[in-house]
Amino acid sequence: MEPLPCLSRIRFSLWGLLVAFGIIALALPVAFAGLFGVLQQLNQINSDLAVVRKGQLNLATMLRCQLDEQIGLRGFEVSHRTAYLLPYRNAIKEFGNEESELRERLIFPSESSAKRMLDDAVATNARWQRVIAQPILAGSHSLVNIEQGSTLVGRFRSDVDAINAMILTEYQSEIEGRANTIRTASAIGYSAIALVGIQALVFAFLLARLRYALDREHGVVEALQAAFAGAVTTAPMLEVATAYVSATRGAKIGGDVYDAHQIDENTALVLIADVSGKGVDAAVDTTFVKYSLRAFASEKHDVATIVRKFNALYANAQKAPEAFVVLFCGYYDWRSETLTYVNAGHEAAYVCRAGTVERLAPTDAIIGLSADAQFHTAATTIDSQSILFLATDGLTEARDPGRRFLGDAGVQEWLRKANTGSPQELVTDMSDRLRRYTGANINDDLAILAVRPRKARPT
Fold first, then answer.
1. To the nearest whole percent, how much of the chain has pLDDT over 90?
2. Strand 349-353 with 378-381, pairing
3. Computed from CA positions of residues 77, 79, 82, 85, in that sequence, does the dihedral angle turn out positive or negative?
4. Is the pLDDT at 160 greater than 90, yes or no?
5. pLDDT score recorded for residue 111
6. Last residue of a domain, which of 162, 197, 219?
7. Same domain for 20 and 128?
8. Gap between the terminal Cα atoms of the chain
9. SS3 track for the chain
10. Which CATH number fits the domain that encloses residue 430?
């Protein structure tokens, strides 16, 4: 009578499958409906973020217009040339357009306070026109007008600062709301996966294949990141060392990229950049940054031109208003020992020389704010006894266990004490200091590039 236990097990298995199918049939539609609702909410949050971002740009343009009004008016007052009145009149027109757009975008909970401040800013600007601009246009000039004008300008800028603070508060609130929404979506998704797990015997083969496919894609992404973002085709005249740490858990992918690429026998392109965002999307963008700049550099443009062309390309290609790139891009001329560079909002750029540290300050704003932005170059000398040290903001924004930022001053202090015997020794020393400082808890992607010219070009 041995078949009875087998029959019992078969019946139990069939009953278990029926129960599992019944639970999933009832629960999965609820889970999917919840996911759909959460995704709609997330889409609305992203739309609100875009509105807030555009409002920031409107506010910045209004501030710039007010400055253009002052400059144009003062130019006319000093020179009596009507050509100075053209930017003045253009600024007046643009100011009104930006004010109207900003008013429509003040849709957050504190909009009433923000609109009152906006009304006061507009009224202050109008009073400035009456009290300062119109008398100057009429040929009148007095010390009282100048003093009163300074007071009005100060009040206008105080209103703008207050509105900007409200917008930033709303922006942070939206970001936190999006994070909560994503966590809710994740929780619902995990619940759905748990329900599907009841049918493990039925879907075992499918899950195994899915896991295999995911692992394979994960490996492909890591390989691409290593090939595109991490690989450096070093110019013969340079000694290069690098380090890369990703904040993405369980994956060596992120939004930081570096490069040292030979342009000709005497010139090399040196690059470090930080793309907004994290994970796979940011990793994909790093390839766009790296190879776009290489392509423009191959056309033998000067460094300001290649950054300008890349900025236009990036600004037109990216639809997300919050997308941006922070980068340091330079040409190193081995013959003249000169690095000519554009620093688009990049903080951690230094030259180490015999115990001293020179900081290469930003020359321009970040990439992606405006498609027609112009960029400017600066230059410094780097010989075979010096090391160019570049790092993304994962270094300056590193925190110790007490949540204190390392900052630019901390990085410079480290560099003055670090081992600068070679680029690799410097990178290793700085990486070790960072691990000790943070307790090996890295919260942001970090890329480091150290470059030293060789005394003689290898044959």
1. 30
2. unpaired
3. negative
4. no
5. 66
6. 219
7. yes
8. 87
9. CCHHHHHHHHHHHHHHHHHHHHHHHHHHHHHHHHHHHHHHHHHHHHHHHHHHHHHHHHHHHHHHHHHHHHHHHHHHHHHCCHHHHHHHHHHHHHHHHHHHHHHHHCCCCCHHHHHHHHHHHHHHHHHHHHHHHHHHHCCCCCHHHHHHHHHHHHHHHHHHHHHHHHHHHHHHHHHHHHHHHHHHHHHHHHHHHHHHHHHHHHHHHHHHHHHHHHHHHHHHHHHHHHHHHHCCCCCCCEEEEEEEECCCCCCCCCCEEEEEEEEECCEEEEEEEEECCCHHHHHHHHHHHHHHHHHHHHCCCCHHHHHHHHHHHHHHHCCCCCCCEEEEEEEEECCCCEEEEEEECCCCEEEEECCEEEECCCCECCECCCCCCCCCCEEEECCCCEEEEEECHHHHCCECCCCCECHHHHHHHHHHHCCCCCHHHHHHHHHHHHHHHHCCCCCCCEEEEEEEECCCCCC
10. 3.60.40.10
Q: Which residue has the higher pLDDT, 136 or 196?
A: 136
Encoded amino acid at 401, one letter? P
Residue 225 located in a structural domain: no
Shared domain check, 214 and 294: no
265 and 162 in a common domain: no
Question: How confident is the model at residue 449, as a pLDDT?
Answer: 95
The two tokens of residue 285 are 């963008």
Rounded Cα gap, residues 22 and 15, in angstroms? 10
**In terms of domains, do 400 and 308 share one?**
yes
Which tokens in the block code for residue 201? Answer: 């015997």
Q: How far apart are CA 147 and CA 163, in angstroms?
A: 25
Cα torsion angle, 249, 171, 286, 359, sign: negative
Question: Cβ distance 389 to 352 under 8 Å?
Answer: yes
pLDDT on residue 71: 82
pLDDT of residue 340: 97
The 10s digit of each residue's pLDDT in 407-459 is 999 999 999 999 999 999 999 999 999 999 988 777 777 899 999 999 876 65
Q: Could you tell me the two tokens for 153?
A: 């300008």
The boundaries of the domain holding residue 315 are 231-453
Report how many domains make up the chain: 2
Is 224 domain-assigned? no
Length of the chain: 459
CA nearest neighbour of 366 among 395, 346, 396, 390 = 346
Look at residue 349 and tell me whether its pLDDT is greater than 90.
yes
